[in-house]
Amino acid sequence: MQKFIHLTDTHFVPPGNLLYGLNPIDRLALCVADVNTHHPDAAFAILTGDLAHKGQPEAYDALKRELDKLVIPYHLLVGNHDDRANFRAAFPQARFDANGFVQFTFDMGEGVLGVCLDTNEPGKPWGTFCATRAAWLKDTLNQTGDQPVILFIHHPPFKVRLKRMDDISLLEPRFFIDAIAGRRNIRHMFFGHLHRPLAGSWRGIPVSTLRATSHQVALNFVIEGRIPGSHEPPAYGVVLLEEDQMIVHMHDFLDRTNTFLL
Predict the structure, then answer these.
(1) Which DSSP string do the residues of 205-260 spell out, in sequence order?
(2) d(CA 224, CA 158)
(3) In terms of Cα–Cα distance, which of 79, 86, 77 is closest to 55?
(4) What's the predicted TM-score (pTM) here?
(5) Could you read off the pLDDT of 191-219 as tens digits, one per residue?
(6) How far apart are CA 135 and CA 186, in angstroms?
(7) What is the rounded distance in angstroms from the CA atom of residue 251 to the CA atom of residue 236?
(8) Domains in the chain, CATH or no CATH each
(9) Measured distance CA(197)–CA(217) in Å, rounded
(10) Environment class of residue 63 by beta-carbon count within 10 Å: exposed (0-12), middle (13-18) or buried (19+)?
(11) CB count, 10 Å around CB of 140?
(12) DSSP state of 45
């Protein structure tokens, strides 16, 4: 069995600042401490984008200081709030494809290949997956043969019926859909962006996301225009990957509810 940690939407701001009344740095610090205490045996952590809220260099520097406290390796994606140049300066170890997109693969263990994708469109809240990015994905998947693949992406390429969030999902996902068409080796797709716990399937692919380590989006199927925010507790995912199954546990790491034996 392979264990890994899924985090998303850290939304870091420069030190000394709050975001929607919360301190994203403090919240991630508590998350890192919880992971280090309870899951030091995890193989890695992966963050599915919106690392910084406005892409400032100081925010990325602060994020790196916190993530470097993890006792496990970590992988990073970018989201719509991120700035690729500032991200690259703060994380020189970050991996890019030949066209400058934050797209790469890595060995997840258990014979599974992780494929990380870039949906950032500078200055826009919605996601884009252009023909160039799709060509990279298609070529990568062509090389995998029958090897199991797990996709990591920031924007979901489908609607979740939260009206305001659907307006800023991956717009016009036709290139993405074409790149994965006919693939039977995609075991799962992890994503971020929604700041909500959600699981299901899309085009036969199991999908999941979870609440951010920062602020949340309220569960409201009616509101349009402004995004309804929420201070629901943050979470991280504990993913247990095996040859014949994969289980995602979503852990509210700041929940202090009493536990007891049944």
Answers:
(1) EEEEE---SS-EE---SS--SS--EE-PPP-EEEEEE-SS-EEEEEE-TT------
(2) 18
(3) 86
(4) 0.96
(5) 999 999 999 999 999 999 999 999 999 99
(6) 17
(7) 5
(8) 2-251 (3.60.21.10)
(9) 10
(10) buried
(11) 18
(12) E
